[in-house]
Batch of 4 targets.
Target 1
Amino acid sequence: MSRPQGQWTWSRDRRGEAGLGAHNASFRVGDPLARTQGHRRLLLAFAMTLAALLYIDRVCISQSQHLISGELGLSKEQMGLAFTVATIAYGLFEIPGGWLADRFGPRRTLTVSVCWWSFFTVASGWVRGLASLIGYRFLFGLGQACCFPNLTRAFSNWFAGQDRTRAQSLMWLAARWGGAFTPLLVVLALDFVTWRQSFYLFGSIGFLWALFFWRWFRDHPEDRDAQAAAAARERSHVVVPWRQLFANRSVWLLCLQYACLSYGFWFYLTWLPTYIREQFGLEQADRYVAALLAAPPLFLAGIGCVLAGWLTPRLVRRLGDVGRVRRCLGVLGHVIACAMLLVSIRLENPVLSMIAMGFSCFGNDLAMPGSWAGCMDMGGRFSGTLSGTMNMSGCIGGLLAPWTIPYILKAADNQWRVVILVIAGWYAVGALCWLGLDPVTPVAESEKAAGDSDEWRTPRIPAAKA
């Protein structure tokens, strides 16, 4: 049977038939996405590189915080405030950053945002006191807010079916491993340069990434075979269904579980080096040991991302329901994260304790790819906005962690055990959220109609026989 001329086949399946996730695209041979395997691999390489770079720029300040606070005379509470303002800015600009991806495309938005945050990474080396540190970190957070919503929008345009989940899993693997190896990298760099110069070094890498990305990337696969400017002019203005978005129960549960994930994960990004030094009595002479102890959580988190991407299509083929698979992995991930944190505080050996924390981070990231793939399925052509909304809620959890932990310590007589118990409680709440979450059904009824009528994107291609 031949296919109608010039039509782009777009199929949706409620139960994940043939191994594809519900509401994901299935493309036939000869369609635009089927002809772009090499380009998709290169896009994935760009995304993985950027995700790693984002966490390198983010984690380097936590490894330098004792040097920064010593030189500038800052307390733990003041350093916590500096961490918090970056997260506030990151959270405030998540939804605008996602909307910019939907409106102007990820190519322009990502290029500008990477240059922006790279500049303020460099500027972090110019600080002279608390005020300038807070100002530069706030502007740094604004730039980084665009990263993951824009990459998610790019994946929505370029990937189909369970390739979306796999793409998300590999991107987050790079992010986590970037954070895992950054502590050792920064400690090594600080043996040769000052903490100020380390910001100059890491910040400069982003400008190179932005240059190559701008020259190569296009917002849609068909833009590489046609005039990109003409294609952009033909695309209609995106009107986000805000009322339907915020009236949807699954959106609220998705956001709440992500806030729970982020509260725990931002502990690793901000206070983990201090926790290791104080909990296990390590001194400056033991800095390499401390850096190595900080590696297992983020390293095993990356393994959790990859395992989620590997398991999802296989479980979908067995169970026939992608929503059920994502829900199971979401609950399991939160339960593992909670349980292994409780195990870690019962272990006195530093290595064993940090390995247990590593498996907690593994559980954290077992739920991550399903969360972001859910944004693509639930959001559709509004995936940038929805992923920005979810990530903004994650930032609320993320900003609460660095801000509240010093006060929890103060109230608990500097007992880190209490902090870990609080984080475990957040993970337990996240597991409950997944029980009532539908991570596949489109948020807007208009989006479902648009998907059925090919209104999102209908490239015209030559006729081909099936």
Target 2
Amino acid sequence: MEEAAADSKTIPQRMLQRSSRLAAMLGQRRSQLHKVDATPPYVMERCGTVMVPEKGNPLEEEGVLNPASARGADGSIYLFPRMVAAGNFSRIGRVRVHVDGSGVPIGVERLGVAVQAEHSWEVRGVEDPRISWLPRLRLWIMTYTAVGPLGPRIAIASSEDLITWKKLGLATFVSEPTLGVDFNGYHNKDALVVPNPVTAPDGTLCYAIIHRPMWDMSWTAGSSGTVLPEGTTDSREAMWVSYAPAREVERDARRLTVMFQHRPLALPEYPWEEVKIGGGTPPVSVPEGWLILHHGISRRSPDFPGDRGLTYSAGAMILDRKHVERVLARSRTPLLVPERKGETEGIVGHVVFPTAIEPHANGKDSYTVFYGMADSQIGAAILRREPAAPQTDGSPGSLIPGMPLSG
């Protein structure tokens, strides 16, 4: 008994030491977020508009936008667009993409509704899906925004065939005392799932989920407004990453909804991101690590009274293959900005919002990107890798000066 009592006295001390170590690690992590010098070696070129609202279709009365994508067993690309009915009520559709002889998207064939509101936590609609293929689960995983009584939340669904979707539930975030907040209390959007397990901060093998918590808590009773995690000083919305243990997820895909070890991934850094940033396309494997496109928001002069005066542009990041918290390269200037009429005029003008990416038919170094245009239509663009620059660091195989291959 005396030995047990002696051991019990050390428990608070051990907890305090663990909290101190975690707080120090988080502080160090935040101090490193702005030390990215390399630029992803990609350029983007528009293909044109792929999908517009169908006249007379009440499900698309207020626009089609922000699709997820996947390549089916038949080799076709399928999009899962957000379809907006009257009153800004959204469903997620399913369409087959038509391409020309060179693989460039030129239109779509509508195949119905893939996901719609069924539960109380999504009673106000389902929005902005992203899809990743998880090979170790042999499942397509869709993240989407479920809008319910408590506002927008991340929800997850799975499919074996891209036709039938099983809802796994809302994402939940296990609280970490050192952060001083409960992430379940925040509105949250723009979730991206890394397809293969990576190393979490504690060294365990996990699936990583990138997301964008929204710090404004003014919608809750008794809140004075912005509530930030401990140690966070920048109140702008940014990209965070959380982890789900791979062993548990591979036993039961529903465990993907239970996330631990929440860490900041990237903050607004460049002028085109001055207001906030968020995840765009699901991660795809490239030689250096994981490539994602993200959106950044900047300010402009309003076009008319009531216009928010914001511009949504798109850039790229490359994340380390094993440790996704490490941003290896990042766009200093956007790859795509709203310039054409369909991008500057619409339900919400001056918006390009990439959410889907697929390997292009012309080669492994190019991708077809699908993006929302002014919250009204869907466009396509080709993302191409630029020729390799001369090596400056002596790292064999490095395709970005000063940046060795990860993993």
Target 3
Amino acid sequence: MLDDRKNISAELYRCPVRKRYAWQLVRYGGATRRFTRALAGAAPPLAELQATLRAAEHDTVYYPGAFAAAGVQAADLTRVGELAYFPLLSRATVQARYCDLFSKRVRRDDVDEGWLGVTSGSTGEPVRFFMDAASIHFFVGFIRYLWRLHACGPLPLPWQTGIVLLCTLPRSSIYETRLPLLRGARFRKLHWAEPRAARTLEALAPRVITGDPASLARLNDAIASGACAVRPRLILSSAFALPAALADDLRVRTGAVVVDYYSLAETGPIAHRCTRGNFHVLSAAAIVEAVAGEVVVTNLRNRLFPLVRYRTGDLGALGAGACACGLAGATIDAFHGRRAERFSDRRGARVDPSQLQPLLSKLPVQQFRLEQRRRGEAALLVHGASGALDTAALAFALSRLLDEATAIAVEEQPQAIVRPGEKPIVYRSLLAE
């Protein structure tokens, strides 16, 4: 069974769900099917980009002035490459001009069916945003695309569990519903703090499991200990980098196709990682650029809250051409994640601390965060520790990663490290940029 020292404490609440199944089929069924087919394309759709720019210019308060200040207008764009002449949109601007970014066409029904959200703040700059209902339902189109791409077999049937979303956040809703756009299969959000969560997951027998690496690490532990036996066809990971060792373990223990995908709360899925390790841009969903080493996204799906050349705060470099996996089109080749989540080694090069996840996930704590404070010094913030922590192996692995001896100070936090409603920030560098 699972180690009781690692049980998760959380505040859970039931969330009412507006079903309206027939309405979803009528309103979004055709568009979702078209989106699924369009995802197979490699070339950015020029017509969709032009329509997005027109919607931004004609229907919002913010963009007409921003475009005019840059000396451009929507009608100027005749090639996708000309998007580079349009102004960048910072996270600070989205926060400050939030209301001015809404389309004038937004109705009360749009707000009721959409999502007024706030990002987790993992970039250091949390922002408010609005995701329209079509963008929310397009996630099903994304799953159908991956299902077909990886030849996962027949789609789930109406009486089966299609998708389970795993969660480890300190405060979270739990709910279930049906997915009319996925053959009426069941969707369930499952928190690891629920009583008998592992057995519940086994009974649900989902065809798709999705979550962040922290919740998937918990799944891996449950399977390894014999607390849970599941055989999903597809496992999806997002929010922060999925360690290769964890992906391999899940692949071997479940037989599932494991896909790490890049997504923003403000936009939805942007790219997915192939079997060769490249992140392939979903060209039907977004135009992706790299500006001064930062990933910049133009969302093609949501014209009720258009994001044009949006600076994500993520680091990456773009590539193009055919991949050995068989896919073509733009890729995020050197994806480095969030600035604040990358450590710097002895030579100043950025390194990925998520390689330490297997060691960190074994700690008998409820929450943790690893911080690089200065050269040769790191701090491990922990909450809910059930005993003394041996960090010798972790310090050795971190020193090898940074190519210099690094001491780790353990700091017990009386309050939860992750505040209610936030995604976990597992790694943070406090070194000056």
Target 4
Amino acid sequence: MKNVSRQTYILIAIILISIVSFSIYAGIGRSKYQPKSIYESSSFNKLTGVVPSNDGSNDLYILEQQGIIKKLSVSSRETSTFFDLTNKIFMYDEDGLLGLAFHPNYTTNGYFYVFYSDLDPLEVAETPRCTFECARTVLSRFQSDNNIVNYSSEKVLLTLSHNEPWHRAGNLMFGQDNYLYLSTGDSNVMPRAQTLDNLYGKVLRIDINTEDEKYLIPPDNPFIGFNNSREEVFALGLRNPWRGSFDHKGRLWLGDVGLDRIEEINIIEKGNNYGWPVLEGYFCNALPETCDDPQYKQPFFQYTHNNTKSIHDPYGIAIVGGVEYHGESYPDLVGKFVFADHGGKVWAIDYTENLEINSIKFLFRIVDGITSIGTDEDGEILIVGFLSGRVYKIELAILTILRVSVVMIVISLVLYKLVRLIWNKFKMRSQSNL
């Protein structure tokens, strides 16, 4: 009887572990991936982006909306303040510190570029108590020496005035051509994305390798010599192209946040017009004959704000750019475009060489407001959480199952020992009463 009872306890423990493990697996859902914070305690606040150091250290620079850039040492897990512009930053709704890009030769020249919001001093002088109606966005270059920023080195390259608290955009990065690319947002009230005499609702491309001028115009920019046109413009017809990235072929993928219907992913090419405000994705905001104009380029992919099929199908409230995965940890994601919605869901698009979509796979959901997706130096994906102040990486969901299973085995063994002890005491008491 003693051996039978022991086997029974072991069998019960195995059954309990199996039930718990299966429940955990079912709770995770159909995806094999899950998010995991890259640091245990949050020392960050209202994050807007993450940029790798690209100096071989794999350290990360994390942007806070209030105007602070913190450096996270991956080796020591320690954080330090690299850049603090809180004394200048205007933070309201979509204003704040929006973009960061290191010069390709940063390790030798110390140059880095930021895109941020402040209050136009001329506007404030006229209207001392103004807020967002006096806001402007600023593209500036700073210089650091051994990662110590010289704030007096600021060189303002570009300013854009705003009279609404939205659509600043701010995807700032260098292309493979070593030119600096900046995305800008457009107005809902007075859209200007379709005209070339301004820099709103555009992708700009400038040559910053000059000391004599603020910047130069690349000689192959598409609108050089056009009447009444800004020659910085590389592409137009965008609403709020908040986040994007270059793939291994040098193509710029850019998410464009829609008004109230469509979120879209565009592949930005020189001189292209992406339709806003005439089009919002495939949706026509004008006369049909106007929307059918072949000058308007259709998005690579779009999704709506309403879910009509599976809960894992793309839908949401605001697209958050994306990156082509080129890491080594997950071979089945290599070459896929990973993007997110601000509501927390993350997907991966598998596509052909001809940019035809094969499939769209739901990866996981983060209970957070996602504001950016980037990669570390090794090409591993990083996802930025605005509300939690966390940066997440991707890991296999099976790791959680294994970790919890080990815990459950330990618990089961403890319970087994406890039940066995109680059972033996019960037997001894029963025998003593005979």
